[in-house]
Amino acid sequence: MANQESNTHNDQEGPAGRSAATGRRALLGAAVLGAGGAVLGLSGTARATGGHGGGGLRSLPVPTIIGHRGASGYRPEHTFGAYDLALDMGADIVEAGDLVITRDGHLVCRHEPEIGGTTDVADHPEFADRKKTTTLDGTPVTGWFAEDFTLAELKTLRAVERVPANRPHNTLYDGRWEIPTFEEVLRWQDEQTRKRGKQVWIYPELKHPTYFRKQGLALEERVAKLLRKYRKDRFDAPVILQSFEPTSVQRMNKLVDTPLVVLLSGASSRPYDFVENGDPRTVADLVKPAGLREIASYAQGIGPTLDLVIPKDASGRLTQPTTLVADAHKVGLRLHPYTMRNENPFLPADFREGTDADAYGDVFGAYRTYFATGIDGVFTDQPDTGLLAREDFRKGAAS
Ligand code: G3P
Ligand code: CA
């Protein structure tokens, strides 16, 4: 069964009492010390901040297991069902959420502006006339778009499984959950932290910032405003912000002190802000030492595709690791590659098992191989599997 995932990125006021530069420097130092694979305790700086933050990036276990869109291997993505399950499983961070925006300016959690693939909007005759074809980052896309709906309208929809052919069991939960807003996520994070007696971390991504800014719906200032409102704008906030557009990450660097990650798609791809700004560089340029040094001047990490860490050959089998892990660590950047999934179609060919394309492959073998490169964490749709793989990895390292 083909991977039905659609990827729409290419290829795929400073906080009170602290200057942005001071916070950044402290955190960058932490990143240098943290790279390398140990479980790290609270830094002196983080302890001194008291209970406000998440203890800083150094308090995260390494490799960090990040629940991609929640526990999206088991529940429709970007729902509180998927986010809660990721926490129940023990994920270190929950990617809550990928952020898009409504016509009336509310940030909501969907992987892309087009909502037809992950909601029941097609079953709502009152919204039939909203279906359209638009150009998203240079590519025509047909469907229903978040920015054409008010929040009240979006709240009448329910989430459905994105890849029902690969994950038929998840359709059991179709129609159960609403689209979460980012503000609801920030409240949920605090409620869950209190309830579980453990700091909950979130990893929101700003999706297609140039596309939305051009429509008068800029994401960055709205994200910063909400982070300030919920006191998550500091360097030790239990939040990591991410985007495929470096310009957007640089904007966030000026607005808040929250940790930042630059996502990197395929080597030949160009971030869409670069396309708009006439910057000729591709991801292949950004992963060179000079590109990584520049990223390290405003971000604490990178989120590369797994293929940038270990490329595949024409048959989909893994080749030799690149120098990306070492090069990124050299300039103090953490690496949180994406995305590990248990099902055969999403695994390197080396780790697929049997003939059922939707069955699980040797995902533990794949984790072993990727963890051995020295990555600092990984996004995964199945956090429970990732956590077991980390246990295996640590046992292996200790023996
Ligand atoms: O945010 C890390 C990973 O989620 C990037 O890929 O397309 O799933 O948002 P995507
Ligand atoms: Ca994402």
From TrEMBL:
EC annotation from Swiss-Prot or TrEMBL: 3.1.4.46
Coiled-coil blocks: none
InterPro entries hit by this protein: GP_PDE_dom, PLC-like_Pdiesterase_TIM-brl, TAT_signal
The UniProt record lists the keyword ATP-binding: no
Signal found in the keyword field: yes
Keywords for this protein: Glycerol metabolism, Hydrolase, Signal
Family: Belongs to the glycerophosphoryl diester phosphodiesterase family.
Protein known as: glycerophosphodiester phosphodiesterase
Reactions the enzyme catalyzes: a sn-glycero-3-phosphodiester + H2O = an alcohol + sn-glycerol 3-phosphate + H(+)
Biological classification of the source: Bacteria, Bacillati, Actinomycetota, Actinomycetes, Kitasatosporales
Enzyme class: hydrolase
GP-PDE domain sequence ranges: 63-390
